[in-house]
Amino acid sequence: xxxLVESGGCLVQPGGSLRLSCAASVSGSIFRIxxxxxxxxxxxxxxxxxxxxxxxxxxxxxxxxxxxxxISRDNAKNTVYLQMNSLKPEDTAVYYCNLGNWYSVLRGSxxxxxxxxxxxxxxx
Length: 124
Known about the structure:
The longest helix has 6 residues, at 102-107. A hairpin with a 5-residue loop joins β5 (48-53) and β6. The protein is globular. By secondary structure, the protein is mainly β. A 6-stranded mixed β-sheet has the order 2-10-9-4-5-6. A 4-stranded antiparallel β-sheet has the order 1-3-8-7, with no helix packed on it. Helices cover 5% and strands 44% of the residues.
């Protein structure tokens, strides 16, 4: 359906910041009618929802990132961002984005596919 491409991940020191981007390769304001979530998967762990925003502007954050991460969107650019501040080593993971209805995004299920993600490594 809609292809999403994650970018922006890299090696960063603890306490540093990164901004991840999730770009949709379609015309029109796709995020006006779909919710989008950022997820991450660390080695040996299951994928978890990090942050989500609904088409109506509701937010949901993983407790361990609340106050440090911010999800936002630019509808004109069909891009969703994840601003990551005060990064910690435990934030190290491959980060993915996906979209769907609000319930699917919160559950992290019922998606047609997952992209390759963008790796984030927080280390000294």
